Amino acid sequence: MSGAADLTKETEQTGERTDTPMLELRDLRVFYGAIEALKGINVKVYEGEVVALLGANGAGKSTTLRTASGMLSPRDGQVLFHGERIDGIKSHDLVRFGIGHVPEGRRVFPRMTVRENLEMGAYRFKAPDPDDMDRVFTLFPRLSERRTQLGGTLSGGEQQMLAIGRALMGKPELLLLDEPSMGLAPLIVRQIFDILEEINKQGTTVLLVEQNASQALQLADRGYVLETGSVAMADEASALLADPRVRAAYLGEGAA
Amino acid sequence: MSLNELWDYMVLGVVLGCLYAVIAIGYTLVYGVLQLLNFAHSEVFMFGGFGGLLVLTAWVPVADPSGFQSVIYVAVGMLAGAALGGAVAFGLEKVAYRPLRRHNAPRLVFLITAIGASFFLYNIAGKLFGRSSMSMPTMYENKTVVTIFGASLNVTQLLIVFSAVAMMVGLDYVVNRTKLGSGIRAVAQDPEVASLMGVNIDKVVSRTFVIGGLLGGAAGFLFGLNSKVVYTMGFLPGITAFAAAVLGGIGNVRGAMLGGMVLGMVETLTVFVWGDDWRYVAGFAVLVLVLMFRPTGLLGERLGRTA
Ligand SMILES: Nc1ncnc2c1ncn2[C@@H]1O[C@H](COP(=O)(O)OP(=O)(O)O)[C@@H](O)[C@H]1O
Ligand SMILES: [Mg+2]
Q1: Is B189 within 8 Å of A71 when comparing Cβ atoms?
Q2: Which of A21, A33, B119, B250 has the most CB within a 10 Å radius?
Q3: CATH code of the domain occupying A19-98+174-250
């Protein structure tokens, strides 16, 4: 777990940054029993970026995030955070590094109030920071109105806001988001993406898993496309957005 | 069967109900965090009885103590019972259940382990402490100290009610107002996400067992004060308290308290009306009836993952 990062060894492709990424997944292989869900993927997220991770159902997007936040351990390969190996560290210890994970399906605590859910997000601290609480309520005025309501009684969009707010309470440097638009009305999705942009502007790096490729790529700086556990494409977001293969497969153009 | 007698029995029902309530909390807390029916909890209770007994018999008591001295003795006995109960619960989790969680064992294996641990614990207690019933030191002259509208309460009963209520209030505070309580509730609702928030699940589970063990152990001592201490003493109160937890809504702390009070009351009133032979019949009939109409118990599964 020492900083065995190799700072100099970077691929020499044109335009690629040579500084140390905030998060790097190196030749990552992850298994569920005998099923190989990730077959040696390489992903980099630099400080300040929004990186989109796209792919069909079952491509391995959630598995990627779950490995980055310590919920799963890779069989092979490494997870590096600021060049330091963090794979094998349990998720409850990993939060201290400043990685916030908004899980697939929101997963708010149903029998806790909005306020208690947010306080849980700050569990790693002695006490929740009131400034963070104010910040969350400013970003999501809807949550502010529902402070004493139970998480389980919120609408889907409100639950998503709560899940994001909860993660922000842990003061993450890096925010991992797993399909925040899933099952939400377009208007709400737009709101949430606007807020994600705001959060990123305020200094949080974002790794965003989405099936909603066009929204995600409009927000993102770069993107990766996963196909059955491998990286099929990696490029600038604008380039992916223009790529005919991406347009055909993920933006519903041409033959599906 | 005068009205006065009925009142007497009702007061006894409160005393018994308090004990069931405190034991039931142990079942419900552990169920909340692990979805495990910890049948060995009745043995934690039994060890608590022995813990108090051993300390009080070793620590030479004043013959015929005053009310004030009795309070001290009961406090010491409760602490000893709680300590041994907490220690047994701690060890039980570490030795019996944690390895199963490591290996993601199916639920049934947990249940069988719980029953096995229960057998092991009460047999080892029989071996260690002998197999005959023992009384708490005779210093506890059961003098009537308070009469409530004609029903008399002795020192012991008064202390049982007082201590049990204090434990319930304290426990409710811990679960709802402290950081450990937040961790317990978070693990109960979604362990995976709780760990993403920085909750160490192993630690929370272990502490939950210890809390249940402290309460169960103290209750074991209080129960022993009221009757006798013997290695089999856990079985009936344990199963009744388990029923109380289910009756109130398993996983629901306040439900466990309510269920315990209800079953304590039903049990003593049954004895009053039909005699001692029927003692455990009516309570379980109530349980079955309530579950037929409200399968999640009186207050619903609050701590748990569902409802
Ligand atoms: N808990 C699990 N047990 C077994 N296989 C799983 C589990 N979770 C995911 N998988 C499998 O791993 C692959 C990747 O899943 P996932 O990362 O959830 O994909 P995505 O998030 O891109 O939809 C899929 O084939 C899925 O069936
Ligand atoms: Mg997924």
Answers
A1: no
A2: B250
A3: 3.40.50.300
Tens-place pLDDT, residues A89-127: 999 999 999 999 999 999 999 999 999 999 999 999 999
Q: SS3 for A37?
A: strand
By residue count, chain B amounts to 307
Task: Tell the residue nearest (CA) to atom 1 of ligand 1.
Answer: A32
CA angle (B11, B279, B161) in 5-degree steps: 30
The continuous run of DSSP H or E covering B115 comes out as helix B107-129
pTM for the whole structure: 0.91
- Measured between beta carbons, the chain B residues lying within 8 angstroms of A120 are 182, 186, 194, 197
Total of domains in chain B: 1
| Partner-chain contact A110 B189, CB within 8 Å | yes
CATH of the domain at B108: 1.10.3470
| Cα separations in angstroms, A50 against A62, A244, B222 | 17, 22, 61
Range of the domain at B106: 3-305
